[in-house]
UniProtKB/TrEMBL annotation:
Domain of life of the organism encoding this protein: Eukaryota
Name under which the protein is recorded: CxC6 like cysteine cluster associated with KDZ domain-containing protein
InterPro entries reported for this sequence: CxC6
Origin species: Dacryopinax primogenitus (strain DJM 731) (Brown rot fungus)
Organism phylogeny: Eukaryota, Fungi, Dikarya, Basidiomycota, Agaricomycotina
Domain CxC6 like cysteine cluster associated with KDZ: 1-63
Length: 256
């Protein structure tokens, strides 16, 4: 079973960059440190003003002010600024988070768990729970065809199956990838042929008991692990990558 859990550690603000930060409060890794001198507003490539995170564009400066004053009431501040300045900040810019003023955190931790509850692997996904990242993880954790599990439960199995097929993958051809009934009913229109053909749980009578409407194996083991691991979220939130991984490794070994 594989599933993602939203715990993470600070990381480089460049999307999907996995290089270590030089300091725990740094916004960028050493490779991307030049970006500190570029305006933090997305799509703006002007150099920053000295001591600022943005360029001299009043609207961009305003976003920084808002960021720094976040402790105070946003609304109050907006009213004050509107009353005393001519700046018309685009609220879109503020609300949709098109800026990288603060630190970034890794997107999630991907777990591979056996139905018995043993955690086989955990991998940090930096930019998102992308299907390709999950496929890469599986390849690393199960490097030989003989080590590939017979069955993989994953709530996005149909897209993973599609991705592997598109890659012309031969490694995982022996692995069946069922999805649960909930996925089937809620994620697709009635007649999603692809999912129905490859991931339909009725295709796997050995895995799913139609009379009792239940899985033969504990397909919720990953969710149960997630609940357990989520309890450490606050503890690991501000650790650097090395300590984060060490802590998780040790806790998982204890649990296993
Ligand atoms: Zn980087
Ligand atoms: Zn700017
Ligand atoms: Zn599906």
């Amino acid at each position: 079973i594989t599933d993602g859990i939203t715990i993470g550690h600070p990381c480089c603000s460049v999307h999907n960059c996995s290089e270590d930060l030089p300091a725990i409060t740094a916004r960028f890794c050493n490779t991307h440190k030049e970006l500190q001198n570029i305006c933090s507003i997305q799509g703006c490539f002007q150099p920053v003003q000295q001591g600022c995170l943005t360029c001299s564009d009043p609207e961009h400066l305003y976003v920084q002010t808002m960021y720094e004053e976040r402790g105070k009431s946003m609304l109050h501040l907006t009213h004050c600024l509107a009353a005393h300045t001519t700046i018309q900040p685009s609220t879109l810019l503020l609300e949709t988070g098109h800026s990288k003023l603060g630190q970034s955190w890794t997107h999630n931790e991907q777990l591979i768990v056996c139905p018995c509850g043993i955690i086989v692997a955990h991998v940090t996904l930096f930019g998102g729970e992308a299907i390709s990242s999950v496929a890469d993880m599986l390849q690393v954790v199960f490097p030989m065809k003989t080590s590939v599990p017979d069955v993989l439960f994953y709530d996005n199995n149909c897209h993973l199956h599609c991705h592997l097929a598109a890659q012309g993958d031969q490694h995982f051809t022996g692995m069946v990838q069922p999805v649960n009934m909930f996925h089937f009913k809620s994620k697709h229109s009635e007649n999603d042929a692809y999912c129905g053909q490859h991931c339909n749980l009725l295709l796997f009578p050995a895995l799913y008991n139609v009379t009792t409407k239940s899985w033969v194996f504990n397909s919720s083991a990953a969710e149960q692990c997630n609940v357990w691991l989520k309890g450490y979220d606050a503890m690991v939130h501000d650790l650097d990558a090395t300590c984060f991984n060490f802590f998780l490794d040790e806790m998982i070994k204890e649990r296993n």
